[in-house]
Amino acid sequence: MKKFVCKHPWSHFEVNNPNGDVTMCCNNDTVLGNVNEATVEEVWNGEGFQSVRKQMRDEGALSMCPHTCPVLQGGKKYENLDWFTELTKNSDQRQNAELNEKEYTTGQTVLGSTPRWFRFTYSYACNLDCYHCYQREDAKMRVKLPDNFMKEVPKYVSKAQVIFPFGGEPFYFKPVVNFLEKHDAKLETRFYFITNATLLTDRIYDTLERLPIINMGASLDAATEKSFNELRVRGRNASWDTVLANLRRLQDLKERKKFSFTLSMTLNSVNCHEINSFVDLAISYDAEPLIMLVANPYQTADFQKTYLQFTDIQFEQMNAAINMALPKVKSRGFEDAEVYLKQLANVLDRHRETENKAAHFRAKKIARKAFHVLPEQLQMPIRRVVQKARTNRFEKYKTV
């Protein structure tokens, strides 16, 4: 198989943790630098980014990325930046993108271009308490990105194609809202948002109305009020009715501003009967439904037992629901939704034979711990075996 060389090490700069750690994407957790210790420019062309660009160029994505990465499966088309040709020819964003394309094509490791996709998580703080949130414990510490980084952001906004304020809940943070309100909306830089759709005040809508938006995503994890309250609210002050009202306002905003609109749900044993209901809910708001199996955030046996153990009947019902949902999303041209559903079916099949069984989950946890205490020279051959297995699984899923 011809190696796949992902563009992310050349185009994406992501601070997905308010501790300042920088990665090239949210599916690869290799830390490439930290904005508490260096400027954006120093990280962008530092040792970490140079190393992953070289490895990606020489060995391809399967040498460094999980085979389940949606990009490898043909998904995450919203992160594709090829639309730079739509930008004004002499704009800073267009010129930066053209230079970046040349540097990617020629395999440069030190870049003259700046990030085209710029995501940052100011804080993990949030107004909800979602059942699967890997950020929950860190959110209590109230860690936030440094002021110096926030002062740097406008410089990179002026050349980036996409700016993605992340969270927690991005509209929960005063510095982020102030940044959005002060942004020069005449620039061709576009914004990407993911929100829990509970804090969209008139002030936020006024700001969204003036910003160039490429995508608005709403994370719900439910298709009903009962599941929403159990999985997301959990004693916090939030309302399903407010969410639905905001989805309608976002649908109206989409019709005026022509951005892509997605609704996402993590599948678990509480909401596993809601696959079709969630797809129908999203379509009713002209939004693309994205469904994936929830990840066990801290790899605890309690979480696995509560949310990731399904009966044989539930597996059959979920597979039947996926088969019913696929024609719906396909008829709407929702390509990412189709990829997500097909991948969900594959993941459920694998989960049924592996981690759905408590003994298998415990054995995998022990194996992970044992691997990380091995010396580096013993880890390397194991990594090569894992890489080969990833490649084989990738080939299998691409042909399904």
Structural account:
This protein is of the alpha/beta class. The mean pLDDT is 89. It has a seven-stranded parallel beta sheet with strand order 1-4-5-6-7-8-9. Strands 2-3 form a two-stranded antiparallel ribbon. The longest helix is centred in the last third of the chain and has 23 residues. Strand 6, helix 8 and strand 7 form a beta-alpha-beta unit. The protein is globular and about 60 Å long.
Question: Could you list the spans in which at least 5 consecutive residues all have pLDDT below 50?
Answer: none
Q: Specify the biggest β-sheet.
A: 7 strands, parallel
Strand content: 5-15%
What is the strand arrangement across the widest sheet? Answer: 1-4-5-6-7-8-9
DSSP strand count: 9
Termini separation: 16 Å
**Mean pLDDT over all positions:** 89
H/E topology pattern: HEEEHHHEHHEHEHEHHEHEHHHHH
Helix content: 40-55%
Number of helices: 16
Rg calc: 21 Å
SSE-based structural type: alpha/beta
Overall body shape = globular
Give a nutshell description of this structure.
The protein is of the alpha/beta class.
Question: Which labels suit this protein?
Answer:
400 residues, alpha/beta, 7-stranded parallel sheet, two-stranded antiparallel ribbon, 16 helices
Show the helix and strand layout.
Elements lengths: L7 H4 E4 L5 E2 L10 E2 L5 H5 L2 H13 L32 H14 L11 E5 L14 H4 L7 H11 L4 E5 L7 H9 L7 E6 L6 H9 L2 E7 L5 H9 L6 H18 L2 E8 L7 H10 L3 E6 L7 H7 L4 H20 L3 H19 L4 H16 L2 H23 L2
Parallel strand pairs: 1-4, 4-5, 5-6, 6-7, 7-8, 8-9
Antiparallel strand pairs: 2-3
Helix pairs in contact: 11-13, 13-14
